[in-house]
Amino acid sequence: MISSQVKSFGFGGGDEEKKEEGGASDPAAAAGMTRDEYEEYQRQLVEEKMERDATFVQKKAERATLRVHMREKYRLPQSEKDESQIQMAGDDVDLPEELQKMVAEDQDEEEDKNSIFGHLQHIQDMDLDTIKEKAQTTFTEMKQAAENKCFIM
């Protein structure tokens, strides 16, 4: 009784039963395939893994390219990790179309802001009344500070 429980836990004695079951040490036979089918299956698994890895590296490089672009735009320090990821992908990394559209829109907005028309449009958006009030309060504060410091006024 105890020996059967010990065998079920894998503590010895199980070798005899495995040998009697019929040599299932061949992985193809264990999977229920012929040797050729099993080799073809293994080759397909390796190819699929290589394709997934290549796609993963490509996606990582695309994200790194986006981060590099954002760092350039906002003048942040560059990362060597991003550059190495781009180089691993073979330097032929392009941004996805949606990101290219976003980048193009950002560049257009920045160009508009830097142009004369952008500044004129910005001036139209300003509230002149609040600017006048701020200027008047600043002037009165400066005048009071000068009066407190100067005895002649």
TrEMBL record:
Pfam families: Synaphin. This is Complexin-4. GO terms for cellular component: SNARE complex; terminal bouton. One of its GO terms (biological process) is regulation of neurotransmitter secretion. Keywords: Exocytosis, Neurotransmitter transport, Synapse, Transport. It comes from the Eukaryota. Residues 1-39 are annotated as: Disordered. Belongs to the complexin/synaphin family. PANTHER family: COMPLEXIN, COMPLEXIN-4. It comes from Pleurodeles waltl. GO terms for molecular function: syntaxin binding. It is found in: Synapse.
